[in-house]
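testing teh design pipeline on a random one, pls ignore if ur not involved
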């Protein structure tokens, strides 16, 4: 698949590395293509990766992945241009990063979610919420012994959800259909639980798995 990843920080770079290794073509949308971290990332990934503006990354992508801080999403989306008709995977967690992250908690919730706010800003875009319920080190390796970490995804468009499930599976997760996009109201607090556990007791090398009969 052709993927446009907006943001090449911890999450964007990790996803880009993994998806390129799985055979996908990755174009990062960045604010500065000359940034030394971007140049290094591209040279480490090799010919499957390139970088451009957000609009360039989105233009040729079948799936656009939003991996910017939630506060930066209005600017990042505006710079991506018209995304109507595209699949947009929203990885954001609506928190303010930093030492007060647990004290401040989620910026929104209960009767809306970051994913729904993003969908409202991007009319005609098929938004799928996923990849917000573990930290980036787990995205780099979701295999725990014989078990895969579970990765819930939710959205309102069946084809978009199928694309997201495939991409999440290609990372090595067990994809879990978590229903409509409004269920991002549940996935974002679930992501906050992972953050709280990580800060308080577990570190970053853990994830949730699914058991069923
Ligand atoms: N960290 C985790 O483990 C984790 C796990 C799950 C979900 N998340 C969520 O994933 C998102 C990214 O987290 P992160 O840890 O990767 O953050 P990060 O390391 O701070 O990276 C954020 C990236 O977004 C870029 N960015 C900001 N505004 C942009 C714009 N307008 N256009 C293009 N790029 C822009 C930044 O680029 P500059 O260098 O130009 O500032 C930076 O490369 C957040 O919403 C976070 O809540 C994070």
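output:
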């Amino acid at each position: 698949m052709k993927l446009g990843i907006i943001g090449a920080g911890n999450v964007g770079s990790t996803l880009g590395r993994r998806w390129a290794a799985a055979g996908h073509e990755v174009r990062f949308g960045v604010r500065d293509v000359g940034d030394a971290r971007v140049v290094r990332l591209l040279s480490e990934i090799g010919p499957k990766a390139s970088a451009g503006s957000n609009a360039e990354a989105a233009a040729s992508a079948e799936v656009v992945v939003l991996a910017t801080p939630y506060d930066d999403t209005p600017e990042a989306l505006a710079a991506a241009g018209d995304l109507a008709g595209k699949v947009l995977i929203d990885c954001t967690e609506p928190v303010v990063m930093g030492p007060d992250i647990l004290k401040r908690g989620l910026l929104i919730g209960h009767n809306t979610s970051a994913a729904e706010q993003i969908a409202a800003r991007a009319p005609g875009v098929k938004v799928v919420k996923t990849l917000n319920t573990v930290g980036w080190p787990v995205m780099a390796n979701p295999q725990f012994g014989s078990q895969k970490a579970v990765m819930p995804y939710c959205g309102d468009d069946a084809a978009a959800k199928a694309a997201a499930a495939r991409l999440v599976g290609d990372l090595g997760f067990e994809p879990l259909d978590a229903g409509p996009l409004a269920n991002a109201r549940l996935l974002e607090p679930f992501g906050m639980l992972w953050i709280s556990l990580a800060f308080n007791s577990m570190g970053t090398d853990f994830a949730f798995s699914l058991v069923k009969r």
